[in-house]
Amino acid sequence: SLQNMLSQAVEKETRHEFALTMIQCKVLKQLENLEQQKFEDEDVVEDIKFMLEKLGESVHDLSSFDEYSAELKAGRLEWSPVHKSEKFWRENAARLNEKNYELLKILNHLLQASDDPQVLSVAAHDIGEYVRHYPRGKKIIEQLGCKQLVMGLMHHVDTDVRYNALLAVQKFMVHNW
């Protein structure tokens, strides 16, 4: 059960990842809805209370970067507030270099593999923001092959994808020469 994932995971980081995934999948909202219902089985009521408490604690510990990272790893990019936040990019652009550029490589993979226009738009936007806020970002993006992928999106059939790709390429040209 979901409760076991949170209560029996040995490592704190694993518990945190499980909680983060559950929050990303809107489990907390579903639990809040379930809490409003009446259940005769006391175990169900206790499980719901436990899960609400644990996920509530995780929400308080959750940073915007954790949220961004989880969204990226899930491959379900949406226009959540972090993508458009100047403060987020100023504070966190360099963190995309962590773990041997893991998150940038995920963005690169999404640019290659996704056929969802929203995912492509957000990924292109994020690459542009990374380049704008990280001094050596342009060079890293070129080395990973993201620049070519974003440039290719300037010919995409979807207008939002083309627009965000164009903005990202503009940032490649303007920033950090």
TrEMBL record:
<keyword id="KW-0375">Hydrogen ion transport</keyword>
<dbReference type="GO" id="GO:0046961">
    <property type="term" value="F:proton-transporting ATPase activity, rotational mechanism"/>
</dbReference>
<dbReference type="InterPro" id="IPR016024">
    <property type="entry name" value="ARM-type_fold"/>
</dbReference>
<feature type="domain" description="ATPase V1 complex subunit H C-terminal">
    <location>
        <begin position="62"/>
        <end position="177"/>
    </location>
</feature>
<dbReference type="Pfam" id="PF11698">
    <property type="entry name" value="V-ATPase_H_C"/>
</dbReference>
<protein>
    <submittedName>
        <fullName>ATPase H+ transporting V1 subunit H</fullName>
    </submittedName>
</protein>
<dbReference type="Pfam" id="PF03224">
    <property type="entry name" value="V-ATPase_H_N"/>
</dbReference>
<dbReference type="InterPro" id="IPR011989">
    <property type="entry name" value="ARM-like"/>
</dbReference>
<comment type="similarity">
    <text>Belongs to the V-ATPase H subunit family.</text>
</comment>
<keyword id="KW-0406">Ion transport</keyword>
<dbReference type="GO" id="GO:0000221">
    <property type="term" value="C:vacuolar proton-transporting V-type ATPase, V1 domain"/>
</dbReference>
<dbReference type="InterPro" id="IPR004908">
    <property type="entry name" value="ATPase_V1-cplx_hsu"/>
</dbReference>
<dbReference type="InterPro" id="IPR038497">
    <property type="entry name" value="ATPase_V1-cplx_hsu_C_sf"/>
</dbReference>
<dbReference type="GO" id="GO:0005765">
    <property type="term" value="C:lysosomal membrane"/>
</dbReference>
<dbReference type="InterPro" id="IPR011987">
    <property type="entry name" value="ATPase_V1-cplx_hsu_C"/>
</dbReference>
<keyword id="KW-0813">Transport</keyword>
